[in-house]
């Protein structure tokens, strides 16, 4: 795919055919990703770009929906999820802006006017209108659009200069006329236009144009034309200007060449292009980032493309260096000698740079940031010098443009092998490890281990290089294990590197030494958090012992500026976090007593947060608090390690774990139960994860709880779990008791939850009328309490009931409402089930392709979130479709693993359906013995469920087997019994199952009256 932003947003196939992205918000998402193609845009930033203050109810779910639609439009492999957001995975030249930057960069490096003009003509030919047309006024695109427009004008000015050198005056004068109208005050462009007019013999027009410009400058800005334009006017007024004498420009003072690169720069192609583009429009660019991220290496690579460049290494300067002292160091690097007249060092440097075209690289500014910040604005205005600085904190001057050097891209856990191999961090590790250990190579076997190592060192290039050097003696597996003591392992850097870059500890020591005592206190205390923290949490835990509560914000800001604290954004505002290596370093600075006190305070803080959240997870604030707990998952897991708070925290988190489908985590966390309440929840989680449990135990656990509110809630949860995967009669008893208790407590939410489960129980028993009554009342109560999770449950039951009644449009409407609510709350297990339910409806309607598409969607969600029940439901649906299309082997392959999975539970509903389907497949393959055995097993399981529809399905299967065995009378009787059972249950034969009965009935050639005796036996 190719993409265009130099004009209206456009997408083309590799062959050049346009691709339509119709929906406006999906186009906006694509535009936002194209602002920085190939780089991660955080989910928070995308949500802000797309909705601003008018946020949808569930921003993350809405964003994921848009991402899915964009993937369908341009290809799923191009829109890639990378923490903390998404990126458009395309090379720079796949976007016209990237191609434009490449061509203009090549043009700047050539001195031949013909080649320069050709390259710039190709670059300017890429433009189809204004950059990001249609989005240029959006905050996310305005800066990028303005920068691209500035680059276009600079390219036009360079292009005009080359054309003038080639003598192409007449044509150029016409081409520049319209451009001048749009940018009348741009003096360099105006000068090129005047020269073109003058050279084409249109001097009078040129002089008129000069006078118009002069009036415009006076009227609008109160200024006169610059020296170049004034000299050009005088030149045009001379009747026969003499040809200027050619003089060679004086050679620049001698200066040391850039150090030759010792190794290849890996994973930074986009970064090099970005910084070079910035230097085309900004006089001062500062590369910031933590120690070891590769600021110097990137700066040197950027500088190699320049005609004249000077590197000034500042790391060796003392912290007390003055502005004049710094000016002397820069002058010495440039080869500038003392002048004859008395001047300050700064004045001498400014005079020497006047008229020079130079890139000045100031490396390692962080410890002398104040004199650098004072010097640069003094020397830049009078020169054509550009400055590229590297620093762990900004210079904080008005002309500065910051560019934060990111760590190298690391693949997320479980990423496909191809993504691991493309990762910049993994490629760097592989290259350096091969150099240190001949014969080493990235392989299928070691790729995930290497990816883990790169994640553990945060993608920091220096840490990766130090780690890769240890492969020779440790191997990758041992190296990954030993990174728990990273400061002992990541040592032994090259002897020719500065001492501060030979070990990971030395890199961080350099930063630590530049901090004040208060900054050090906050930094080391931040190490107690996992995955960052809010400002409120930082203020609570980082204050004390000389750091006032009110000071913490300012100290955090200073640590952010020094590239030691990373800021991200969440629904609760900014979050402050540490890279893993910085966190490990900070923890080492904590004394044992301080560390123990902090960990205890951390557990207390997050236990209180979880208990506050638990009060809001039923009702209108459900979504906000779910998102907040999502963000704090790392801290909450860490807090579970404190024995004093584990029972309280586990109880507070139980409902959150259930809603998010984190059942295994919940089961582990509640295992060491400190109360009867937690023990009851633990048993419910065991049931839901398929662990065998004596269902009567649930009744004893419920009865052991004294608090009536906790007893009702725990009893409901146990009843819900027993209904799904346990003993249905026990589930019915528990829900009956919970409903009565909730009604006594006047708990509307609890009543609605109990009714939704009872509706399921009655639906399974075939009591469809009263199941409908319960489901409708449950939905009404959940709507009153504004609980979206509850609405999903009620919609699911109403959808299944409509499906049984043959009202497929209504069934689909209920399931769609459920999937929208589930996705809005990021209830992915529920969303997966609802997509598969829609697949079942499509199957009933005979649309097998649509059914497969919907079931695949449900399966993908279930697999992504580790939801075995959702995966089973989706794959059984795919098997139903495959069997009905005659793909018997495919159906059996899908069904067999899930038969064993279902047999682990006391509930037999799933096993009954699978046995019936396997029996039909065997029958249609002509294997009567296998079909008979499977349908007999299915009938036994169906009878245990008490569901008349399941029994009817097994009887219909046995009818087909009897017909194969040459027993038409028995087949008729079985079919008749099945029909009577379906009629009694109010569950007519759906179209997708009609085919099997039709097939048998046609073979029998006649109507089937049924057999009362066999029907009675079946009952």
TrEMBL record:
Residues 1-90 form the OmpR/PhoB-type domain. Residues 1-90 bind DNA. It comes from Saccharopolyspora elongata. GO terms for molecular function: ATP hydrolysis activity; DNA binding. Residues 240-262 are annotated as: Disordered. The keyword Repressor does not apply. It comes from the Bacteria. This is AfsR/SARP family transcriptional regulator. The keyword Transport does not apply. Keywords: DNA-binding. Residues 240-260 have a biased composition (Pro residues). One of its GO terms (biological process) is phosphorelay signal transduction system. The lineage of its organism: Bacteria, Bacillati, Actinomycetota, Actinomycetes, Pseudonocardiales. Belongs to the AfsR/DnrI/RedD regulatory family.
């Amino acid at each position: 795919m190719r993409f265009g932003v130099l004009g209206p947003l456009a997408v083309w196939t590799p062959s050049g055919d346009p691709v339509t992205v119709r929906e406006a918000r999906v186009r906006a998402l694509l535009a936002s990703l194209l602002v920085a193609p190939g780089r991660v845009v955080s989910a928070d930033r995308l949500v802000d770009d797309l909705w601003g203050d008018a946020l949808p109810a569930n921003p993350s779910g809405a964003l994921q929906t848009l991402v899915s639609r964009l993937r369908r439009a341009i290809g799923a492999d191009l829109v890639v999820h990378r923490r903390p957001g998404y990126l458009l995975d395309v090379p720079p030249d796949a976007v016209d802006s990237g191609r434009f930057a490449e061509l203009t960069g090549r043009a700047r490096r050539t001195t031949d006017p013909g080649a320069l003009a050709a390259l710039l003509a190709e670059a300017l030919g890429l433009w189809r209108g204004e950059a990001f047309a249609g989005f240029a006024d959006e905050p996310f695109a305005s800066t990028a659009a303005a920068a691209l427009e500035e680059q276009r004008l600079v390219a036009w000015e360079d292009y005009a200069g080359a054309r003038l050198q080639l003598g192409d005056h007449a044509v150029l004068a016409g081409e520049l006329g319209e451009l001048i109208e749009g940018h009348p005050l741009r003096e360099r462009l105006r000068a090129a236009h005047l020269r073109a007019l003058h050279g084409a013999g249109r001097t009078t027009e040129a002089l008129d144009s000069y006078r118009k410009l002069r009036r415009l400058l006076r009227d609008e800005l109160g200024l006169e034309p610059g020296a170049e334009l004034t000299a050009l006017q005088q030149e045009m007024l001379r009747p026969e200007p003499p040809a200027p004498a050619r003089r060679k420009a004086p050679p620049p003072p001698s200066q040391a060449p850039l150090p030759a690169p010792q190794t290849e720069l890996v994973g930074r192609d986009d970064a090099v292009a970005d910084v070079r583009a910035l230097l085309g429009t900004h006089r001062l660019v500062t590369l910031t980032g933590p120690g070891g991220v590769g600021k110097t290496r990137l700066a040197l690579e950027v500088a190699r493309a320049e005609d004249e460049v000077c590197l000034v290494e500042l790391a060796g300067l003392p912290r007390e260096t003055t502005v004049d002292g710094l000016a002397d160091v820069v002058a010495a690097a440039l080869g500038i000698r003392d002048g004859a007249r008395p001047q300050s060092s700064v004045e001498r440097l400014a005079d020497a740079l006047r008229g020079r075209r130079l890139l000045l690289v100031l490396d390692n500014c962080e410890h002398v940031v104040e004199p650098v910040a004072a010097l640069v604005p003094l020397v830049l205005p009078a020169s054509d010098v550009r400055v590229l600085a590297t620093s762990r904190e900004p210079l904080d001057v008005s002309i500065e443009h910051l560019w934060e050097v990111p760590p190298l891209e690391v693949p997320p856990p479980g990423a496909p092998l191809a993504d691991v191999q493309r990762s910049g961090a993994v490629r760097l590790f592989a290259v350096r490890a091969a150099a240190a250990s001949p014969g080493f190579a990235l392989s299928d076997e070691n790729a995930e281990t290497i990816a883990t190592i790169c994640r553990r060192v945060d993608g920091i290039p220096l840490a990766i290089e130090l780690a890769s050097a240890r492969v020779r003696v440790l191997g990758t597996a041992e190296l990954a294990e030993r990174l728990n003591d990273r400061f002992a392992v990541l040592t032994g850097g090259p002897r020719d590197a500065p001492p501060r870059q030979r070990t990971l500890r030395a890199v961080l020591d350099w930063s630590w030494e530049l901090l004040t005592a208060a900054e050090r206190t906050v930094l080391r205390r931040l190490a107690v958090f996992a995955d960052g923290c809010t400002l409120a949490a930082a203020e609570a835990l980082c204050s004390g012992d000389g750091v006032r509560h009110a000071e913490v914000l300012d100290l955090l800001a200073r640590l952010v500026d020094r590239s030691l604290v990373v800021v991200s954004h969440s629904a609760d505002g900014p979050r402050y976090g540490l890279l893993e290596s910085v966190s490990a370093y900070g923890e080492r600075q904590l004394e044992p007593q301080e560390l123990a006190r902090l960990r205890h305070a951390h557990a207390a803080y997050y236990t209180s947060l979880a208990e506050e959240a638990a009060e809001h997870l039923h009702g209108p604030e459900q979504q906000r608090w779910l998102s907040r707990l999502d963000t704090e998952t790392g801290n909450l897991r860490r807090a579970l390690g404190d024995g004093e708070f584990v029972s309280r925290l586990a109880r507070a988190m139980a409902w959150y774990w259930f809603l998010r489908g984190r059942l295994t985590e919940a089961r582990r966390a509640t295992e060491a139960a400190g109360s009867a309440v937690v023990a009851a929840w633990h048993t419910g989680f065991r049931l839901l994860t398929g662990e065998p449990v004596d269902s009567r135990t649930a009744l004893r656990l419920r009865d052991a709880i004294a608090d009536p509110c906790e007893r009702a809630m725990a009893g409901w949860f146990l009843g819900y779990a027993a209904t799904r995967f346990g003993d249905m009669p026990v589930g019915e008893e528990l829900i009956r008791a919970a409903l009565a208790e909730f009604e006594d407590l006047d708990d509307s939410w609890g009543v609605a939850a109990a009714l939704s489960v009872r509706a399921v129980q009655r639906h399974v028993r075939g009591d469809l009328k009263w199941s409908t009554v319960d489901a409708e009342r449950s939905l009404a109560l959940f709507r009153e309490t504004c609980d979206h999770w509850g609405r999903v449950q009620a919609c699911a039951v109403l959808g299944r009931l409509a499906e049984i009644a043959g009202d497929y449009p209504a069934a689909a409407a209920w399931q769609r409402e459920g999937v929208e609510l589930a996705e809005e709350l990021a209830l992915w297990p529920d969303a997966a089930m609802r997509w598969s339910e829609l697949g079942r409806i499509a199957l009933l309607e005979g649309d097998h392709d649509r059914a497969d598409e919907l079931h695949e969607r449900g399966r993908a969600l279930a697999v992504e979130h580790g939801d075995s029940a959702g995966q089973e439901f989706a794959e059984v649906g795919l098997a139903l479709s495959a069997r009905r299309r005659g793909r018997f082997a495919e159906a059996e392959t899908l069904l067999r693993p899930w038969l064993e999975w279902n047999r682990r539970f006391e509930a037999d509903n799933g096993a009954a359906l699978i046995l019936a389907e396997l029996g039909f497949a065997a029958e249609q393959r002509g294997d009567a013995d296998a079909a008979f055995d499977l349908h007999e097993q299915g009938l036994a399981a169906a009878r245990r469920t008490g569901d008349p529809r399941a029994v009817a399905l097994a009887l219909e299967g046995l009818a087909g087997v009897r017909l194969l065995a040459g027993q038409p009378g028995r087949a008729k009787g079985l079919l008749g019994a099945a029909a009577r059972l379906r009629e009694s249950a109010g569950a007519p034969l759906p179209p997708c199952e009609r085919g099997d009965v039709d097939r048998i009935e046609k073979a029998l050639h006649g109507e089937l009256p049924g057999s009362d005796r066999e029907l009675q036996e079946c009952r």
